[in-house]
Write a structure and sequence with these properties.
Distance between the termini: 31 Å
Strand order of the largest sheet: 6-7-8-3-9-10
Shape: globular
Structural class: alpha/beta
Largest sheet: 6 strands, mixed
Order of helices and strands: EEEHEEEHHHHEHEHEEH
Helix content: 25-40%
Number of strands: 10
Number of helices: 8
């Protein structure tokens, strides 16, 4: 089953083209990476997939339905790039951050029921943060905050998870732990994942598909192709590489 699909997708900001005739498919149960240089349009593509922008031309299918008429956005989880960093001083606990994603289910000005508290605790447990539920977000490391954001997205049991550079700002050990966590969620729970990353070589150890975005176009590659190309062209300065994405 295809969970995300674009056909001849194009998008422009005014007269400036950002994406041109992008076609790709994300199958249920896959773990895919989206790579490309800064300014290639990766974040714009995510906004289109999340329904925040409308394409200039072409189509987007989300879980088998046209994105323009799709209403089940709670089935799509989203983790922004270090989305809690600018709110680290906000007096909220990890548990409260995760629970906030259940507001529609709990109801306005109502207290959460036992089942909601259990949902939150399970989500924190899935990301290894069950012992930090009462900890204020300002007291958490960058890696821990990203795990809380992942739990916040997971608490509503999404079918697809979209992550925008989730390891930005993490050290190498924390980033590797986060990738392993995503791999476990993908393999053990069948969670479909699309992740933007600049950590090209490391993510190739975890993903099954790589989409490379550059010069307004996209290429689908296997992790093996990416790693082979990186090894063969490592000695060539990036600015002199002539291949898609400049990574290989």
């Amino acid at each position: 089953m295809l969970v995300l699909e674009t056909k001849d997708l194009s998008f422009s900001y005014g007269e400036t083209p950002v994406l041109t005739n992008i076609s790709f498919q994300l199958r249920q149960g896959s773990f895919a990476a989206l790579i490309g240089p800064n300014g290639a349009g990766k974040s714009t593509l995510l906004k289109l997939l999340l329904g925040e922008l409308l394409p200039t031309s072409g189509t987007i299918q989300v879980l088998g339905k046209d994105a323009r008429s799709f209403r089940g956005w709670r089935r799509i989880g989203y983790v922004p790039q270090d989305g809690l960093a600018r709110h680290a001083d906000f007096p909220a606990s990890a548990r409260e951050i995760v629970q906030a994603n259940l507001c529609a289910e709990i109801g306005l000005c109502r207290f959460p029921k036992q089942k909601h508290r259990e949902q939150v605790q399970r989500a924190l447990g899935l990301v290894g943060m069950e012992k930090y539920g009462k900890r204020l977000i300002g007291a958490l490391s960058g890696g821990q905050r990203q795990r809380v954001l992942l739990a916040r997205a997971l608490v509503s049991s999404p079918d697809v998870m979209i992550l925008d550079e989730p390891t930005s700002g993490m050290d190498q050990e924390s980033a590797e732990d986060f990738y392993k966590l995503l791999s476990r969620l993908n393999m053990n729970r069948g969670l479909t994942i699309l992740m933007v990353s600049h950590d090209v070589e490391r993510i190739c150890d975890h993903v099954s598909q790589v989409y490379c975005l550059e010069h307004n176009t996209m290429a689908g590659l296997t992790p093996e192709q990416v790693l082979q190309g990186t090894r063969e062209h490592r000695h060539i300065p990036k600015e002199e590489r002539n291949c898609i994405c400049g990574y290989f």
